[in-house]
Amino acid sequence: MPKFKLHLALIVTTFAVLFSSPALAIDFADGVQALNAKSYSDKGRAAEALAATGHERTVTVLTALLNSELFYQKSDGEVFIAKKSGKVYILSSPLTGADLGETKKNALKKIRINNKLRGKLKGLLGGLTLMSADADQRFSAADKVFKASDPAMLGLLERALSREENEDVKSRLTRAHAAIVLEHSKDSSARIAAAKTLANFTNPDVASLLGKLSFLDDNGHPIEKDAAVFAAIKDAHKTVESQLSKWAVLGNLFQGVSLGSVLLLAAVGLAITFGVMGVINMAHGEMVMIGAYTTFIVQDLFRSHFPEAFDWSLAVAVPAAFLVTGAVGIAIERGVIRFLYGRPLETLLATWGVSLVLQQMVRSIFGPTNQEVGNPSWMSGAIETSTGLVLTYNRIWIIVFSLAVLAMLAVIAKKTMFGLQMRAVTQNRAMASSMGIRSGWVDALTFGLGSGVAGMAGVALSQIDNVSPNLGQAYIIDSFMVVVFGGVGNLWGTLVGAFSLGILNKFMEPYAGAVLAKIFILVGIILFIQKRPRGLFALKGRAVEN
Amino acid sequence: MTLARKPLIMRIGNDRLARNVLGLLLIAAFLVPILNLWVPESSPFHVPSYVVALFGKYLTYALLALSVDLVWGYCGILSLGHGAFFALGGYAIGMHMMRQIGERGVYGNAELPDFMVFLNWQELPWYWYGFDSFGFAVLMALLVPGLLAFIFGWFAFRSRVTGVYLSIITQAMTYALLLAFFRNDMGFGGNNGLTDFKDILGFSLQTDGMRATLFFLSAMAVIGGYLICRMIVDSRLGRVIVAIRDSESRARFLGYRVEYYKLFVFTVSGVLAGVAGALYVPQVGIINPSEFAPANSIEIVIWVALGGRGTLIGPILGAVAVNYGKTYFTGAFPEGWLFMLGGLFIVATLFLPKGIVGTKSIIEGYERYRLRLAKYLRPYDYVKGGSGR
Q: Most buried by CB count within 10 Å: which residue of A123, A286, A457, A504?
């Protein structure tokens, strides 16, 4: 069978030859055959020769070689592209791509490559797509060439540069060109110019290339022998690094705001209940956890009933989590907390007990392991800039969500009757009662609201954290810190508290490490409380002091 | 109540519950080691070694609960960070026992503990100096928790941080220490803590004799701790402390320097917790950062709440009872234990505000019970202000 197929292959090849420029085609077929050389350096030369032909199949063949899909027939050494399928290989022609049927495994042998060759192939492939009609492909090809840094690509790069019209691609090509010149050229004035060009590119890869070139050897002499070039490299390195550090500040800021928004979500419900009732609800973290599990259940229902609408699952999970945890919150308030008014420390202990029960309940029902909660497609992925800044979509959405939740609470507090009553009870419970406000119901609804917000926070956290029975425990202490730092009875306090703690934490992390940064923050808060025992935005007046 | 000037012993003698519990403890302190060591195993009176070790551990918890009761029950300071003092005392003794291992460690390095060899440390950090001496280690087990309590209290009480805020920052303190001790760079064994102890003062930790001795010491420490606390709360100073609990601003307006009184009880309480930790670690053979976990500290509070806050005897009973229950139920129904512990928190705060010890008054006076019940059912009739103590 294979023999027959081979004949067929010959016929097909002949057709291919007829349709393309004959001289090139012959070169190309020889070139492919030359890939099956003994030494790796011969293979490399053959690959370069292939790339120089400009044949439209070059990319396919070299990719196949890179992916270990290029084989030769043991009997006659002819080269094929082969894909494994069970016990046999499906063959196709490297020259035309025509299907050549299948053959047994032991008839073929893989053309082996090593790491050096692999790097070369990547560079060559990058170079080949430099001429592609698609700007995106050219763009990524320029980056590949930059990474491979192969002097053989210089000619190709110059050709590509001269005909490139897209500014973005052009800048990437310039970068790759300068990098190759700087690293491999012998002409020192060209290299100095290249270093200057590179200084304009604020990018971590450029910085690491320049850093590598400005290394000192063991005796403290620069590995770069040409003093003028070395100075230029040093200069460029400094420029790029200082630019990058500005971008790093921006990255830290984003990380900090992102952490702050998570803290805000986790803490804002706690701040409400604390503000109105003077009670720290230790079961608050478990409300977050229940919210996350509600997301899990909603997504499960979506998977089994409407898999095509999965992207909408969070839109259902948010109100569902609000209702579920709000109901649990009201049940806790009516069942436990209302018997303990005026005794906040006892309430703290009782709610801790509730939190243990809820945790164990979830553990008994769902098991102690993490549950799989999926990201909808609009929340996965990231915006990446050339300057090394990565903004993931889920973080961005959580920042937006946390601000939306805060806005919603602000509207409830300022514009509704319930909000008015809530504020009245916060400021002076006895007076509010005597004005006819049923402070008991305000308490219950406030507790429900605070818990519901925690549930919505759980939906958001399920997107970035493990959904396990311990989820709430991880956030409860941080939430306390936000609340005591920001002060109670004021949403601004929570907002400012959450974001300043988040940003502070992320800016300290690069210097102190994650754990030390957290310890510093905790100690800082302990000291801060000494100065302002009621937090940043404290309510004033006699009723509060009591 | 009269400021009784009778000797302490007579005052305890008149207090039936205290007399019974302390008497029982004193008898057990002597009898249990005897029944364990010198009564043959075949005899029905023999006390097995594991029971000695178990109850020895419970007694250190009892001392810890006592220290929490002193600040919470009498001064109204709900500390959610007492586990930190307990753990620091434990670390001090643990460091001494670590030094005693010497060449018997896995790496056979007489100069450095195993974990430092593992981390490639070249020499002992300065804060390990002196722990070769038993006396120094014991001193540190008292001094370090005491000093931490003093410094923390100095800042917190002077700036009048009270109530829930104080509870939260004590929790922040123990949480910060938890994170710090988890770091390998701290030089306290990181995640794994200190373990693999061999002996103390030349006596092996694994023998029955050692277990019985530690049991005896723990029982004596509880009795001693009780006497100290009782002396404090019965004194004039104790009256002021209770006054601060009941109305801090009123006590201040009467001219008392509230912060100094609070600082005093808080520091004494920290030292007592440190002693408990120092006795605990040789009995369990390990100390690691999880002792600093905020959840542990909250659990101590429930021993006190269940036993009866502000009674001194109650927390001793509460600690032993809850921990015995924990040992039993985590073995028998591992799933159910957290339900029970959580339920205990709820029941103790809702229905037993004075704990098991204080509850006898309810049984004595049905009227008072009815009153309390009415209070639960119609709380608003009894609530004056909003937030507050």
A: A457
